[in-house]
Amino acid sequence: MAIWNLGSINIDVVFSVPHIPSPGETLGSTGRKIFLGGKGTNMSVAVARAGSRVSHIGAVGADGQWTVDRLMENGVDTRFIAETEEGTGQALIAVDAQGENTIILYPGANHAIPLTNLQNALSEAETGDRFVFQNETTLQAEAAKLAKEMGLAVTYAAAPFDADAVKAVLPFCEMLFLNEVEARQLTEATGQSPADLPVDDVVITLGSKGCDWVTSRGTTHFDAMKVDPVDTTGAGDTFTGYVLAGLDQGMPMGQAIEQATRAAALMVTRHGTSDVIPDLSEVRAFRM
């Protein structure tokens, strides 16, 4: 089977700061690095490093060919990444001494993905494949509807959160990933608790507290591994990618979540984004 990811591709510019800046504050940085990033990119790399086949559907500008090359080097199928006149998406990230971050996004080419790229990609998909997307690209509703009609298992990672965007794609989704704040915002917007949503599986990530897997049958909690984080950027995307890869490989949901929890814990002990996502051998060897 395969995983098809309509996902963002960003150039991440990461600044190390003593604390997250307040409004109006000018703050000196102690370091600056450039990484391959984007929620979609991170998920594709995580899926590939977890041992599953993944095709990325997206777009970059002329300045972003190196990002496509890097994805290919990581084992991601890049045939359906278009080059557009828009510049490649960028993220300006500040990471403090405790590993917390704040992010400013410029969508760029992520908002100029040609519909034909999506159609050409999914023409190769097979019933039972998995389709994942996030709220950093265009074509979300069109993609979700098409993937559902083709018999793909549709997963939505609802970040950056927008209630209208989530409500537009919920009828087509089998699985939904939210963090704790997003889950509360969606409940406020819809009047429905996660268990009442028309989705088979809702996974709510809780940071250092682990995650909840919510179905109509109830809620199962999974504890996080205790580590000393240095950078939380990309941890949620790593978790999502590993869950999808585990399911793609036939794991029960609980086993997929447990493996993804180890991957996310290892990820937060590293500085960077997609370039430092752990591979499956590292995750299996990681114990605390």
Automatic annotation (TrEMBL):
Reaction(s) catalysed by this chain, per the record, are: D-ribose + ATP = D-ribose 5-phosphate + ADP + H(+)
Query: Which pathway does this chain act in?
Result: Carbohydrate metabolism; D-ribose degradation; D-ribose 5-phosphate from beta-D-ribopyranose: step 2/2
Q: How is its activity regulated?
A: Activated by a monovalent cation that binds near, but not in, the active site. The most likely occupant of the site in vivo is potassium. Ion binding induces a conformational change that may alter substrate affinity.
Cofactor(s) listed: Mg(2+)
Which subcellular locations apply to this protein? Cytoplasm
Boundaries of each Carbohydrate kinase PfkB domain copy? 6-278
- Gene3D superfamilies in the record: 3.40.1190.20
Against CDD domains, the record matches this protein to: ribokinase
Listed GO MF terms: ATP binding; metal ion binding; ribokinase activity
Locate the active site.
237 (proton acceptor)
Enzyme Commission number(s) of this protein: 2.7.1.15
Q: How is the cofactor bound?
A: Requires a divalent cation, most likely magnesium in vivo, as an electrophilic catalyst to aid phosphoryl group transfer. It is the chelate of the metal and the nucleotide that is the actual substrate.
Summarize the protein's role: Catalyzes the phosphorylation of ribose at O-5 in a reaction requiring ATP and magnesium. The resulting D-ribose-5-phosphate can then be used either for sythesis of nucleotides, histidine, and tryptophan, or as a component of the pentose phosphate pathway.
Q: Know the name of this protein?
A: Ribokinase
Q: Look up and give the organism this protein is from.
A: Pelagovum pacificum
Q: What is the lineage of its organism?
A: Bacteria, Pseudomonadati, Pseudomonadota, Alphaproteobacteria, Rhodobacterales
Q: Which gene encodes it?
A: rbsK
